[in-house]
Design brief:
- By secondary structure, this protein is mainly alpha-helical.
- It contains 5 helices and no strands.
- About 70% of the residues lie in helices and about 0% in strands.
- The longest helix has 27 residues.
- It is elongated and about 55 Å long.
- The chain starts with 14 loop residues before the first helix and ends with a helix.
Length: about 100
């Protein structure tokens, strides 16, 4: 079976599809957090942990590297949102309060 290229992986458009992608990413993150990205980290393991079929995983990701990239991108987006929020809260604060924040 030929692998999908990352650019051809389907983007989730429905709520159920978003939930599937989120379950895959959360499962992969749990595995990485518990055990790292070693020999036991693979698509079959991720699918099993996420409670989805391997076919569903491959609808959205070409493989474990694509999943790791998506986890990294998601983390960057979350950190950026937290930083934006902090900067917004400090935008009009006096300098001494902003520094102490």
């Amino acid at each position: 079976m030929a692998k999908r290229s990352e650019n051809k992986a389907r983007k989730p458009s429905q709520q159920r599809a978003h939930a599937t992608v989120e379950a895959i990413l959360e499962a992969a993150a749990r595995i990485v957090e518990r055990e790292g990205v070693g020999r036991g980290f693979g698509t079959n393991r991720i699918a099993r942990e996420a409670g989805v079929s391997i076919g569903s995983l491959y609808e959205y990701f070409e493989g474990k590297d694509a999943i790791l990239r998506a986890i990294g991108e998601r983390h960057i987006q979350r950190v950026r949102a937290l930083m934006d929020q902090a900067f917004a809260e400090l935008r009009d604060a006096p300098l001494d309060q902003a520094v102490a924040y």
